From TrEMBL:
<dbReference type="GO" id="GO:0005886">
    <property type="term" value="C:plasma membrane"/>
</dbReference>
<feature type="region of interest" description="Disordered">
    <location>
        <begin position="36"/>
        <end position="95"/>
    </location>
</feature>
<feature type="transmembrane region" description="Helical">
    <location>
        <begin position="275"/>
        <end position="293"/>
    </location>
</feature>
<dbReference type="Pfam" id="PF07690">
    <property type="entry name" value="MFS_1"/>
</dbReference>
<feature type="transmembrane region" description="Helical">
    <location>
        <begin position="567"/>
        <end position="585"/>
    </location>
</feature>
<feature type="transmembrane region" description="Helical">
    <location>
        <begin position="391"/>
        <end position="410"/>
    </location>
</feature>
<feature type="compositionally biased region" description="Low complexity">
    <location>
        <begin position="58"/>
        <end position="68"/>
    </location>
</feature>
<feature type="compositionally biased region" description="Polar residues">
    <location>
        <begin position="73"/>
        <end position="95"/>
    </location>
</feature>
<dbReference type="InterPro" id="IPR011701">
    <property type="entry name" value="MFS"/>
</dbReference>
<feature type="transmembrane region" description="Helical">
    <location>
        <begin position="430"/>
        <end position="452"/>
    </location>
</feature>
<feature type="transmembrane region" description="Helical">
    <location>
        <begin position="473"/>
        <end position="491"/>
    </location>
</feature>
<feature type="transmembrane region" description="Helical">
    <location>
        <begin position="313"/>
        <end position="333"/>
    </location>
</feature>
<dbReference type="InterPro" id="IPR036259">
    <property type="entry name" value="MFS_trans_sf"/>
</dbReference>
<feature type="domain" description="Major facilitator superfamily (MFS) profile">
    <location>
        <begin position="157"/>
        <end position="590"/>
    </location>
</feature>
<dbReference type="GO" id="GO:0015244">
    <property type="term" value="F:fluconazole transmembrane transporter activity"/>
</dbReference>
<feature type="transmembrane region" description="Helical">
    <location>
        <begin position="225"/>
        <end position="244"/>
    </location>
</feature>
<feature type="transmembrane region" description="Helical">
    <location>
        <begin position="543"/>
        <end position="561"/>
    </location>
</feature>
C-alpha cells in the first residue's frame, strides 16, 4: 500500500513536506542494498577489471545509446526490455526494421517477459562505452515496473483514466441544453450561443499539440501534466458557471476544453505503459468507450435539470463531476511512463552512491537535445506527416468527417425529436442513450474479433501485416452511410421515432468499430510518430467538429433535416472507398513512406 501511495501525487506531496522521511523509495531506505549483478559490476570496476558485456543469463531492459560498443549494438537490436512499456519500445529506434517488424519484436519480448517475470530473475546492468551505467529494473518482476503491477491496480488506474476522459467529454455537450438560456441571458443568436460548445471542442483539439510533447519528456512525465491541467480545469469551471458576460463565458469554455485535453493526448499512452500488446486493445476499448459516450450522455445529464434550475445548472454539474475525479487522480493515479520512472531511479542511485555514472537511457538519448526543439518538432510533425503521407491524410480526413458528423447530431436532434415527436429536453437526452447502445454493440463486435480471431492468430503465427487490423472496418465502413440515410428519410412525423433512432444506433456502432481499427492500425504502422499522429488527429477531428457545430444549423435550415443528413451520409462514403483502398494498398503506401515501419 505504501508503494501505491508513494507513486501517486499525494505521496509526492507528502514526501516533499516530510523531506522524504516517509513513503521512501527502496533506494532511500537505510538498509537498501543493490542487487548482486549491480554490486558485482561496481566491485569489478573498483578492482580495475572490466565488466563483461554478456548478460550472464539475464537480459537488459534498456536499449543502448549510440555511444555503446558496436559489438553490443548488434545484441541490443535483438534483445530489449523484458519490462519496458510498449510505448517506450515503439519509440526505440534500435530495432532493425529491415529484418523484423516493431510489432513482432515487441510481442516476442512480452511473451518472454510473461514466462520470466514470475521467476524474479536479476537483470544485469549494462555499461556504455564512455562508462555510464544504464539504470534498469532490478528484476524481471520488479514491482516498480508498471507492466508488473497487479491486475487490480491496473484496473483501478484504467477506471480513473476512463472517468477522467468521460467527464471531460461530457463537459462539452452538457452545455447544449443551456444554449437557449444563454440566448436569453446575453441577447445573442443561436449560432453565438452554440459557440460555447464549439470553442470547448476546439480547445481540446489544440491542447494535445501542447501537452503531448510535455508528457513525453522523461523529466516531466505524464502525471504532472494530468494533475495540473485537471486542477486548472476544476478551478476554471467555477467562474464559468458564474460569469455574467458573454465574451467571458466563451473564453472560459475554450480554456475548459484546453485544460481538459490531456486525457485525449495521453490516455492511450498511459494504458500502453501498463498493458502488454495483446491486452492493451481491451483497455483501449474501455477508454474509447468513455470518450465516445461522454458527449452523448451530456444532454441526458442536464436535460431534466436545466429547464427547472436554469441554464447555469449544466455548468455547475461540470464542477460536481470534475472535482471528485480530480481528487481520485490526486490520491491514486501513479506515474506510468517507464522513461520517467527509470530517470527518477537513476537520480536516487546517484544520490545514494555519490556517483554520476548512473544514468537512464532517456538521459543519454536526450542529453544533446534541445527541449524547445523537441516541443517545436512535435507541433510541426503531425502536419508534415499528414501532408506527405497519403495513408495518414486519409485517416485524418475520414476521422475528422466522422467526428464532425457526430457533433452535428447535437444540432439536428432538437430539430427532429421536439418538433416531430413533441419531446422535451430531458426526453431528447434519453434519445442520446442510443449512442450508449451503439457503443455496447460496437464493443461486443470488436472484442469478439480480438478474442476469437486476432489474438489467437498472433499467439499461433506471430504478427500479420498491419492491414489485417482493418478487417472489421471493411464491413463496418458501410454502416455510417446506411445509418445516416435511415435517419434522414425516417425522421418524419408519420413514422415512429424509433426508426430514425435505429439509424443513429447503426451509425454509432459501426463508427466505433471503424475508429477502433484505425486507432490500432496507426501506431503499429507509424510507431515512432504515434504520439504526434494522435495529437494531430485530435486537432483535425476537433477542428472539423468545431466547424460542424457552427454550420450544422444553417445546413439543416436551408436543406431540411432529410436533405441535410443525406448530404452528410454522402460524405461518409469517402470512408468506404478509403478503408478498402487502405486495406489493399496500405502496405504499398507504407513502403513508399519515410515515416512508416518497413514492410516485411
Amino acid at each position: 500500500m505504501s508503494s501505491f501511495l508513494r507513486e501517486a501525487p499525494v505521496g509526492q506531496l507528502i514526501r516533499l513536506i516530510t523531506r522524504n522521511r516517509v513513503l521512501r523509495y527502496p533506494e532511500e531506505q537505510p538498509n537498501f542494498e543493490l542487487p548482486e549483478p549491480w554490486t558485482r559490476l561496481l566491485n569489478d570496476e573498483s578492482k580495475g577489471t572490466t565488466s563483461p558485456s554478456a548478460f550472464d543469463g539475464s537480459r537488459s531492459s534498456t536499449t543502448l545509446s549510440s555511444s555503446t560498443d558496436d559489438s553490443d549494438n548488434n545484441q541490443a537490436d535483438t534483445r530489449a526490455s523484458v519490462s519496458t512499456s510498449p510505448a517506450a519500445l515503439t519509440r526505440s529506434r534500435s530495432v532493425n526494421q529491415d529484418t523484423i517488424s516493431v510489432a513482432q519484436h515487441r510481442f516476442d519480448i512480452e511473451q518472454q517477459h510473461e514466462l520470466e517475470k514470475t521467476k524474479s530473475i536479476p537483470i544485469t546492468p549494462r555499461k556504455t562505452k564512455d562508462g555510464a551505467i544504464l539504470v534498469d529494473w532490478y528484476f524481471t518482476d520488479d514491482p516498480a515496473n508498471p507492466q508488473n503491477w497487479s491486475d487490480m491496480r491496473r484496473a483501478m488506474i484504467t477506471l480513473i483514466i476512463c472517468l477522467y476522459t468521460f467527464v471531460v467529454y461530457t463537459s462539452s455537450a452538457i452545455y447544449t441544453t443551456s444554449e437557449e438560456g444563454v440566448m436569453h441571458e446575453f441577447g445573442v443568436d443561436d449560432t453565438k450561443a452554440s459557440l460555447g460548445l464549439a470553442l470547448f471542442v476546439l480547445g481540446y483539439g489544440i491542447g494535445p499539440l501542447l501537452f503531448s510533447p510535455l508528457s513525453e519528456l522523461p523529466s516531466i512525465g505524464r502525471n504532472p501534466v494530468y494533475i495540473w491541467t485537471m486542477f486548472l480545469f476544476v478551478i476554471i469551471s467555477i467562474p464559468t458557471a458564474l460569469v455574467t458576460n458573454y465574451p467571458g463565458l466563451m473564453v472560459l469554455r475554450f480554456l475548459q476544453g484546453l485544460f481538459g485535453s490531456p486525457c485525449l493526448a495521453n490516455g492511450a499512452a498511459s494504458l500502453s505503459d501498463m498493458y502488454s500488446m495483446l491486452s492493451v486493445p481491451y483497455a483501449l476499448t474501455a477508454w474509447v468507450s468513455a470518450a465516445y459516450n461522454g458527449p452523448a450522455l451530456g444532454p441526458l445529464l442536464s436535460g431534466f435539470s436545466v429547464p427547472v434550475m436554469g441554464w447555469r445548472w449544466s455548468l455547475l454539474e461540470i464542477i460536481w463531476a470534475a472535482a471528485p475525479v480530480f481528487i481520485a487522480m490526486f490520491l491514486f493515479l501513479p506515474e506510468t511512463s517507464t522513461p520517467t520512472l527509470l530517470l527518477q531511479r537513476a537520480q536516487r542511485l546517484r544520490k545514494l552512491t555519490g556517483s554520476d555514472r548512473f544514468m537512464s537511457q532517456s538521459e543519454i538519448d536526450q542529453q544533446n537535445l534541445d527541449k524547445r526543439a523537441v516541443v517545436i518538432d512535435a507541433l510541426i510533425k503531425p502536419i508534415e506527416i499528414t501532408i506527405k503521407d497519403p495513408a495518414i491524410l486519409f485517416v485524418q480526413l475520414y476521422t475528422a468527417i466522422i467526428y464532425g458528423i457526430y457533433y452535428s447530431f447535437f444540432e439536428v436532434f432538437p430539430l427532429v425529436y421536439p418538433v416531430y415527436y413533441g419531446m422535451g429536453y430531458g426526453q431528447v437526452g434519453l434519445v442520446f442513450l442510443c449512442i450508449l447502445v451503439a457503443c455496447l454493440l460496437g464493443v461486443t463486435v470488436y472484442l469478439s474479433y480480438l478474442y476469437f480471431y486476432m489474438n489467437p492468430r498472433i499467439v499461433a503465427k506471430g504478427y500479420p501485416i498491419q492491414e489485417s487490423r482493418l478487417i472489421p472496418a471493411l464491413i463496418a465502413a458501410f454502416g455510417p452511410t446506411i445509418g445516416l440515410f435511415i435517419f434522414a428519410w425516417t425522421a418524419r412525423p408519420d413514422i415512429h421515432w424509433i426508426a430514425p433512432t435505429i439509424g443513429i444506433t447503426i451509425y454509432g456502432a459501426t463508427v466505433f468499430v471503424v475508429m477502433q481499427c484505425i486507432f490500432v492500425y496507426v501506431p503499429l504502422s507509424y510507431p515512432q510518430y504515434a504520439a504526434s499522429l494522435f495529437a494531430g488527429n485530435d486537432f483535425f477531428r476537433s477542428a472539423l467538429a468545431f466547424a460542424s457545430i457552427l454550420f450544422a444549423k444553417p445546413l439543416f435550415a436551408n436543406l431540411g433535416v432529410a436533405r441535410g443528413t443525406t448530404l452528410l451520409g454522402g460524405l461518409s462514403t469517402i470512408g468506404i472507398a478509403g478503408i478498402w483502398l487502405l486495406y489493399f494498398f496500405g502496405a504499398r503506401l507504407r513502403s513508399l513512406s519515410k515515416f512508416a515501419v518497413s514492410v516485411e
